[in-house]
Write a structure and sequence with these properties.
The protein is mainly α and about 130 residues long. It is built from seven helices and two strands, in the order αααααββαα. The protein has helices at about 1-10, 20-30, 35-45, 50-60, 65-70, 95-105, 110-125, and strands spanning about 80, 85. Helix 2 (about 20-30) crosses helix 3.
């Protein structure tokens, strides 16, 4: 099932689901030893699951929760003897009206255009990292 979640995340993020694409994009973001074409092909076939550090890179790149990518939707729920609780929200604060509008417009774009927009935002984010308030 990991392979299916990885493929879906790639498609949702606007990437072609191909080993060469996954290899290139992953290695651009991973600071360790580059991953091989054969390794990413095994991920996409479901023959293996990446180590935790690689899973974190995949999740950050594809804008998905790492637990959901690895385990699926059931990872979103914690069950104890007395209750079932949902995980904390993905956003620390509610998005503003402008942010909701931008997100709505972004989601309405074709996958290829979403990728261009995301690449532009990533470029700006790298050029202007957030400043520490502490």
């Amino acid at each position: 099932m990991f392979a299916e979640r990885l493929k879906a995340a790639m498609e949702a993020a606007g990437y072609e689901v191909r080993p060469s694409v996954l290899e290139r994009e992953f290695n651009l973001r991973y600071w360790g030893k580059p991953i091989t074409f054969q390794a990413v092909r095994r991920w996409l076939r479901g023959d293996s699951i990446p180590s935790q550090d690689k899973l974190q890179v995949l999740a950050r790149w594809l804008l998905v929760d790492p637990h959901q990518l690895r385990y699926g939707d059931s990872a979103y729920y914690h069950v104890s003897k007395s209750n079932v609780s949902e995980p904390p929200p993905a956003w620390e604060a509610s998005p503003s009206s402008d942010e909701r509008q931008v997100l709505s417009l972004y989601r309405g774009l074709p996958a290829a255009q979403r990728k261009v927009v995301r690449d532009i935002i990533e470029t700006f984010a790298k050029a202007h990292p957030p400043k520490d308030d502490g």
